Structure formats: C-alpha cells, structure tokens
Amino acid sequence: MLFNSIDFAIFVPIVFLLYWFVKQKFQNSLIVVASYVFYGWWDWRFLSLILFSTLVDYSVGIRLSKEDNISKKKILLWISILVNLGFLGFFKYYNFFLDNFVAAFSFFGTPINAQGLNIILPVGISFYTFQTLSYTIDVYKRKLEPTKDFIAFTAFVSFFPQLVAGPIERATNLLPQFYKKRTFDYDKAVDGLRQILWGLFKKIVIADNSAQIANEIFNNSADYSGSTLVLGAIFFTFQIYGDFSGYSDIAIGTSRLFGFNLKQNFAFPYFSRDIAEFWRRWHISLSTWFRDYLYIPLGGSRGGIWMKIRNTFAIFIVSGFWHGANWTFIVWGALNALYFLPLLLLNKNRNNTDTVAQGKHLPSFKEFYQIGITFSLTVLAWVFFRAENIGHAFSYLSTIFSKSIFTIPHFLGIRTALHTLILIIIFVIIEWIGRNEQYAIAKLGFTWKRPLRYAMYYSIILAIFLFMGEQQQFIYFQF
Amino acid sequence: MKKFIIKLLIFTIPVIFLIVMVITIDFFKIHGFQNYYSTQKIELNREVITTSTFNHFMKKEKFNSFIFGSSRSQAYKCANWSKYLDENAVTFHFDASNEGIWGVSKKIEYINEIGDTIKNALIVIDRATLRQTNARNGHLFIPMPCISQSSKSEYYLTFLKASLNPKFLIANLDYSIFKTYRGYMGSLIRRSKYDHQVNNKNCDIWYGYDKHIVIDSLGYYNELIEKGIFYKRPKKVLSECKVTLKENQQLKTIKNIFEKHKTKYKIVISPVYDQIPMEKAQIELLENLFGKENIYNFSGKNQYTQPIHNYYESSHYRPHVANDILDIIYH
What we know:
The complex is a heterodimer of chains A (479) and B (331).
Chain A: H1 6-21, H2 27-43, H3 47-66, H4 70-107, H5 125-140, H6 150-158, H7 171-179, H8 186-219, H9 226-257, H10 275-281, H11 284-295, H12 305-323, H13 327-345, H14 365-386, H15 390-400, H16 414-433, H17 450-466
Chain B: H1 2-25, H2 46-61, E1 65-69, H3 78-82, E2 91-95, H4 101-113, E3 120-125, H5 127-131, H6 145-148, H7 152-164, H8 166-178, E4 197-198, E5 205-206, H9 209-226, H10 245-261, E6 264-269, H11 280-290, E7 295-297, H12 319-329
Parallel strand pairs in B: 1-2, 1-3, 3-6, 6-7
Antiparallel strand pairs in B: 4-5
C-alpha cells in the first residue's frame, strides 16, 4: 500500500478511528493486525518472513536475558544475525553474488554455468531486518531489557507507518512506547497531519515531477549534452530527497496520529556545509545504525590512520551495498567515503554541528560557498546511485565533463522542467525558512490567524492537485 | 478527539465536496457504458471506450475478429476489413491511445480468458508500439483493471486526480456553464470544427478532419504546414528500437493464443510519417515468430509515407492509405 494511494487514504482513517475507540489493552493488537494488512496488501506471502523474524528475535531476546554464559550468549546473538541477514542476503543479494562469481570465473578462464533465481525482493526487508537486529544487539549488550510482551514486540517490528521504508527505529526508542498508555493528544495529531501534508507535497509535487525529467534524461543520456545531463542529475537529487524524506515525513506524521514519536530522519541535508554534516542530516536512522552497530564496534575513529581509513570505507561501502545489489551503489558509497575521509583525517568532521546561518535570514558568503560545494559533490555522487550500471555512470559523467557542458540544455519536456524548477525553488525557500524545525512547515504560520493558516494549508493541497506529477513508486521501497 | 474530528471535517468539507462533485459529474465517462462521443468536448481514454464497449456488446454481438493497435490503427475500419474476411466474421476495433505491445497482448489474453474466440486479427504496429512493453499511466492511457489485472483503486484514483486538477476543473466547469471557449482553456476543451463520427458497437471512428479536408483541403494542409507540423524527413533516429526480453515474451504470448484459437492474422507495420524504417532485428523477430507471410512492412520512405495528404498530421495516416494496405495484404 503506497502512502500516496487512495487505499492508504481509506486505510488510515479506519485504523485511526478503531485505534482510539478500542480499549487501550487492544491498541497494540490492532496495530499488529493493521500492519499485517498493510504489508499483505502488497504480497501476503511475505508476511511469514516478518513473522518468522519476529519469533526468532523475540525468543532470542528472552533467552539472552536468562543466559549468563558469554559464549552461549554469543551463539544466540549469531542466530539472530544469521537469520536476519540470511533472509536479506538471499532475497536481495543472491543473484548479485552468483553473477559476480560467474563473471570472476570467466575472467580467469574457467567459465561456469549457473542459473540465477527469479527472486522477488520483499518490500522493506532491509528496514525491518535492521530494526529487529538492533533489538537483539541492544539486549545482548544489556542496553535494553528484553520484552516479554509478544504483541508489543510484534507491533514494534511491523509498525505500519515505518515498516517498508523506515525510519529504522531503535528498540530503545520505539519499543517502550508500546508499553505506555497512549491517550489522544490533539496538538500531536494536528502536528502529525501537518507533517503528512508536507510529506505528500514533497513526494507528489517535488519528487514525482523531478522524476519525469530525471528519467527522461538518464534513460536517454547518450542523446543529450553535458549541460542537460547536469540538469538531469540535479533533478534526480531533488527527486530522491523529495521521495525519501517525503516518505519519512508521512511515516512520522502518521505515527504521531497514533501517539508515537519517531526520530527525525532528514534534517535539511542539502543545506550542509560539508559532507560530514550531510551524513549527519541524510537518512539519519540508517547512518546512526551503521555508526552504532558497525563503525564503533570496528573501532570507530580511534586507532591509527589506516584504521580510520578502513572503518570509513567499511561503513560507507556497506551502506552503499545496503541500498541495492549493484556495483553502482558500492561505488556511490566509496565515493562518499572519499569525500568524507579528508575531513576525518584533518579532524574537521565535526566543524559544522549547528544549523547553518542560525538566527539569520541568509547564509554568509562562506556558508553559501560551502553549501554549493557540498551540494555539487552530492549531485555527482547521485549519478552513480541513479545510473543503470557503472558503465552508464562513467559515460554520463564523461559527457558532463566534456565541452558540451557549455551548451544550452535541451531535452524532451524542457517546458515542464522549467515549471518544476520554479516549484523546486519555492520548495527550497520554504525548507530554508523552516530549517531549524523537525520539518519545514512545523512552525510556519503558527502565529497567524486561523483563516490565514487554513489558506496556507489549502494552498499546499491545491499545489498537490495542480502540480501532481505522474505517480511513481517510492524509490526506497526497492531497498 | 471529538474536537479533532469535527475540525478535520470542517477543514476537509471543500475537498470532500469537490470529490463528490467530480465523481458525480464523471468527466471522463468511466462509470459503466456510455454514449462516448456525443458532444464530446474533452479528451477521453480511448482504451476505456473500447474495453467498455467490448464488455457491453460482447455477449450480444459475439465479436470474433479484432483490429488491435494504437490510434494509428483507426485508419482501418471494420466495415472495410470485413470484406476480406469470412461471412461470419464479426469485427471489433480494440485499439487504445499510445497502445503498446503490452496492451495488445493483454487484450488478447483478456479475450482468451473470458472464453471468446479470435478468428481473425489485424495488428497494426510501429516502432513506438514495440517499445511500449509496460502498462501505461495517466488518465488518457491507463487500461481498465479487467485488462491490466491491476488495482481498481489506482485506476479510479487516476481519473479522480485528473478531474481534480484545477486547470482542468475550472476550464470544464466554465465551459459547461457558459458554453464559451476562452483562451486559457487551451487544449483542455476540444475546438474542432467538425465532430468525430463513431460506430458505437464496433468502435470505428471517423475523424472530423476528413470533412474539413473534403471542404477545404488546401486550407487544412497549408495551416498545418505553416504551423510546422509536417517537419522535414526522414527524422533523425534518436534511439534504436531494440528487441527486448519483455517484448519477446509478449509477442510469444500473442502467438500462443493465436495458435490456440487457430487465428488468421496479419501484422502491419505502419507507414509512419517520420520515415524511420523499422529495425532489421525487429522484422526478423516478427517474421520468425509469426511467419514471413504475415508481416507487412510499410515503414521507411515509400509511396505511402511520401505525400503529406496521406496524413491528418505528422502522426496519423488516413483511411484511404489503410484501404490500400488492406488490399495489398489480402491479395
């Protein structure tokens, strides 16, 4: 069920009303049922995977709390890791590894015959496996008491607003919320609706419109000039941001309707002044997951220079690989590691931890320059993320860095692109104004009188209908 | 909670009102079978028209011979085609706007699934048709769920979205009330001098342009030439129409159903104005699958693509060309 579908528009009000009218002790059960319906809407067969993952981690958690023997505890932890990563590995990476083995053997002159499997990737598997893994690891590290409430744990694993594309919630944040009594909070619900509205705007207006142009340019990149390809990459940059952060906004907003607080997943990343800041602001729930469960256990930024380099590459490459079984994602990760390393080695990776131009209307010239450089580096990296394969990415970049970059961009649908560009500029201005908040319009118009505030909301709704792009699936569903 | 629901309802009243209104008006005539072209001022989804008409008349008429293809296939008329078929052939024009091989295969699958027979088939294709191997989106192209087997809600939502588009909504309400065309309405309201004529049973369509051409041929073509519609040819090939796995599979599906029904079929590669010849690999694939004797290639530079009076504009060729082609392929 897509967040921008009519199914979801009917589903949420029904679940919302039932949720607040049933007895509190049944609220978690209702969330489980609703979440399984939500997921089963896509393909009910894969519900068994979520259920199995839930059962394994629930049992492992309980056994871990009763076990004092370190080696037995380690075995239990590895059972959870192997089950979760095993599913992920099989469904997401089996064909990738097989193809590369075949290619490697052929390269060394020993061709082998192996048929790939026709595997369907279960939606959201990368998200919920990481969420359940965080639970087991935290219980193993005694950061969290294991739950004995199976329904609460099942609701935590399958919570529908964030089940298929995050934010990847930590058990330490989300699970305790399922134990607490939840009462309806008017302000929270209104805030949730506001965030959903902004998420829909990002997805339907910004991402879907940008997607049409990015798709045209990337799919026919051989026919276009360098300047056009730059535009294609910029439109993809806004597509992926609008798409994914829009999804996160809808997920967080929907959760608030049900009385839950999810963590902020995007903190205006395109206003970052360096790559380190970008990665503190982009897909925060995944970045912090890798930081806590991979980077720090590997030694983090302690140790010698080589260890720092190794760990940085490890986290970025694994993060890239998490996005998909394609070399393009691995190169995208490695490129970001290359961007990040100089800052880490020069101890400048925490230079920009505050919000840019805090207390000011506009950034200084230096800040503007820094934002421009970081944005350009990010745009270049997205080329690998969007390209069909490595060859496509390199040919795309080689056209960008050719003389044709100095020509006037021209492509099919350039008039539509101009409209989209204007929308993007308006969007960036609103995001800039709201950059201190959880989401751009969180406080926008708070002090205004009601008619004016309503007019603003209606304008956003009108913009959604007026500039509705062709519906595209959320990009992160494929991860 | 009560306060929240009441405020939410108050806030959403205008939106709910609009939704109920556009569903009731049914701008795109998607609810049930309707008289599609009577005083039609807005563009409709041709696929919905042909599918609804087929569903409405199939039991009574027992169609067994079909013309498939995009709007280019509309040059072929059932009545003209019937002359070359058996006496008991009941023809139906099962086309769609911007039709692709995906759509053709889905329609053939649908006819097969509901138990109807396909005695004769005329498939009209071009490079664009073979490229289109996925379901199309948008209110002018989305197929009915019975054909696409996809979600009904997505189907209805597509039309709801299109109906709620303020540009469309304002122009239509304005035109419905005042019956006056204004500049801002652009192409949202059709302004042709002559209405299309249709056969409501077999979905044949005769464009109003034909009347215009008969009355003032010179004026019609001069206007289009001045507007630059008839561009210089042959058009540069921007990207090759490569054979894809999906296309191959969809063509095989068509072939298998034809074999099952013992269908007599002909595949026509349209004489497209751009004069770009169909790729060799595509011809080979079609000939290997369907037999050389059933493939007729009129693409590229030839006697049909050369004169501009063979076209309404740079996309659609006229019925007299289709009649010549029918004569060639059936003799």
